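Sorry to interrupt, but I need a hand with the structure work. I would like you to pick a protein and set down its sequence and fold. Please put the record directly below this note.
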Amino acid sequence: MKNKTIAIIGIGSYISSVITSATDLEGNFVYPIVLIAISQIVKIIFTILATVRLWKTARYVSIILASSAIILFVLSVIQEVTLPEYGSAIIILLNVTKIIHFLAFFYAIILLWTMAKSMRKILRVVGIIMFFGSGLFMFIFWFVAMTKWLGFLGSVLAVLIAPGLVIFPIIFWIVEGFFPVMYFAIVQRSIIA
């Protein structure tokens, strides 16, 4: 199997696991348990394939990817069994492990995608991911705010009308009562990318 194929499996497994993790207001999963299980199995297969493939060239990534996946699984089981309160050590450890696993996961995908290419191309891929990711986050921010303010009409308008760099934050500040610092942080990431 080629490295790019493994990277595409990783991207697909991550997208499917995020989509199938949706819950309703009561905390019940929206998608059938079979789809959730399939997306997690594909994610496990990617983790194993990426760990084996990257073992000789980037052993540290393989170790971090595999160990963070195992620790994430163990902490998730502990969370489901013990039901700790928000802010407890288990919850904080679980969130830190999720961040580490996320970074290792995508770094492994980038390494697999660009295994034999130069560093310039790697940075180009990272820049493109940051640019489009920032754009997606800004659109989600805009879409949620418009839907919250105007309901269904707001969601339609959010798709049809561009928010603008200066006008939307001012309107958000007036309506919500606080300045959207995160919006400008995402714009900054997009400019850097």
